[in-house]
Protein: HEPN domain-containing protein
Organism: Bacteroides uniformis dnLKV2
Amino acid sequence: MSDYDLETANAMLLTGRYLYVGFMCHQTIEKILKAYGTNCLMEVTLKMHSLSRLAERTGLDK
């Protein structure tokens, strides 16, 4: 799913839709952090959207 979001961000970049590029990149990173937290740490963080807080909770903020 995050691969699709990243491809969408690239398509938006090529058409000059920069606001959506930022949004789709945020979605991509959020999904990667949540997948890492769920699969590697066995911790579910579904209702959080802050990338900095997700990075802190997964220990990937350093």
Q: What stands out?
A: The chain has one domain: 2-58. The first helix runs from residue 2 to 14. The CA atoms of residues 37 and 43 lie 5 Å apart.
